[in-house]
Design brief:
205 residues; alpha/beta; Rossmann fold; 8 helices; 20% strand
């Protein structure tokens, strides 16, 4: 039996540090990668096309919807985000774990398509801390920050849909918690047939 990768869904309110945490996680473990979403959102100065996102037009996004190219897609703050179906399926078939950084709407879609996926919610230590992080990163106007804080309340209300909750109060602790989830899942008996088959055969026959 060939090893099948595990699909992880990671969601969080905007500004919680989700992307930085996920990058630290994949840098510290083998055979795990993050899916690069397509988006109609404008590219921020520090972002690179094909690394942070695939930045595409509204027309191109709609064309991909029409061709059923997305595993899931959602609209967040008037911009569209979508996950490539073919890339995710191909990567999982190669035995590589895949992380999807998506919002709760996308998580609901993925959980219906992949009931065995593992969902992780990253929580900020407080609403006050989240507001400070959003102001400190200086990417949004005051009005947009208020919209993000309002959205955070709705996002957190969906927390019971997730398998795990990780609080990002201390960065290193949060990365450790994420690693623990992934490494623990890899030790499940059902996820290690290649490692166990030969050994079990010695005891069985």
């Amino acid at each position: 039996m060939s090893k099948q990768g595990t699909l992880y869904v990671v969601a969080a309110p905007s500004g919680t540090g989700k992307t930085t945490l996920v990058k630290a996680l994949i840098d510290s473990l083998p055979e795990i990668t993050v899916s690069i979403s397509h988006t109609t959102r404008p590219r921020r100065p520090a972002e690179i096309d094909g690394v942070n996102y695939y930045f595409i037009s509204e027309d191109e996004f709609q064309r991909m919807i029409d061709h059923h190219d997305f595993l899931e897609y959602a609209t967040v703050f008037n911009y569209h985000y979508g996950t490539s179906k073919s890339w995710v399926e191909k990567t999982l078939a190669q035995g590589i774990d895949v992380i999807l950084e998506i919002d709760w709407q996308g998580c609901d879609q993925i959980q219906r398509l992949f009931p065995d996926c593992i969902s992780i919610f990253i929580l900020p230590p407080s609403l006050k801390d989240l507001a400070k992080r959003l102001r400190d990163r200086a990417q949004d106007s005051g009005e947009v920050i208020q919209q993000r804080l309002s959205d955070a309340r709705e996002t957190v209300s969906r927390i019971h849909h997730f398998n795990y909750v990780v609080m990002n109060a201390d960065f290193e602790t949060a990365v450790h918690d994420l690693r623990t989830i992934v490494e623990g899942n890899r030790l499940l008996q059902k996820n290690q047939p290649i490692n166990l088959n030969q050994l079990l055969a010695e005891f069985t026959y």
